[in-house]
Write a structure and sequence with these properties.
The chain is mainly β and 277 residues long. The protein has a domain at 1-98. It has one helix at 171-175, and strands spanning 16-20, 36-48, 53-62, 77-87, 90-105, 108-109, 113-116, 122-132, 135-145, 150-152, 158-163, 181-187, 197-205, 215-232, 242-261, 264-269. The strands form two sheets. Strands 7, 8, 9, 10, 11, 12, 13, 14, 15 and 16 form a ten-stranded antiparallel beta sheet that branches. Strands 1-2-3-4-5-6 form a six-stranded antiparallel beta sheet, with no helix packed on it. The longest helix has 5 residues, at 171-175. The protein is flat.
Length: 277
Amino acid sequence: MKLVFPTWEPKGKNQIQEINQTAGEIKPASTPAENELRYRISPQQVVQLDAEHAVMITGSALVDQTGEVAGGHASSGIISAFWFKKDKDLWTFLDQQDEVTTAGKYGEPEETKVIRLDQTHFALAIESSDCFQGQCFTSLNLYQIGPTEIKPLFSKYIRLSEGNLESRDCEAAMNQPIGKTIERKIEEDHFSSHECYDIKGMWHIDGKGNQPGDLIIEFSGQKEHQVELNREDGATENDPVQITIQSTLNEIKQKQVLRYKNGQYHLVSGKNPNPNQ
């Protein structure tokens, strides 16, 4: 860290660095300026790419003058990268990428991990999770780590997991027998048309070959399918409409395969069962 942030410390006030962004790169500000921003910067990953090159991944959170993170629920942190070259026995700074991506919530950066695509290439993996109004999800993004740049491996994130069990009363639907159609009544509201679901995805890449391995995602869980039969008005205009539905709870167990081609992963088989993919 101190090769690029000489005054940085892993804890305390020096974990916060003042950044002058007018230079077009993340670096310590030499003099106070109106556009000077303060970030709490932490190293997340250090990977040796080969015998002479390494990359450091950092996560940064914008902070106010008191050192508190300045961000709401929708505010992301910044993921950055710094490359180094070994010259004899010393590592020297080579290049940097100020913003690989933004990820996280409440101003905090998302955690990252580094995986192998094959025997010589690495990727940065970010799983982002959140909940809003009773709906929860986890999305996956992958980025290929190059000698001086990190590039996205997807044209769009992949939704790994999704569930809406807290957004409406799903207890009856999720406890009914798999594959059996049940007739029941529900009250009409802004959630009543939502089918209940709880889906989870697990992924892996076999990075032992000479070419980037396939991305395999295995999904499991349950998803309700509703058919509306009829509606009955309430006894008074203030009473909710009663909807009669047929509800079938289906088991989710399927696989999706994506293959590396021309610098990105592309779908070759399977379907993502998550409703908001």
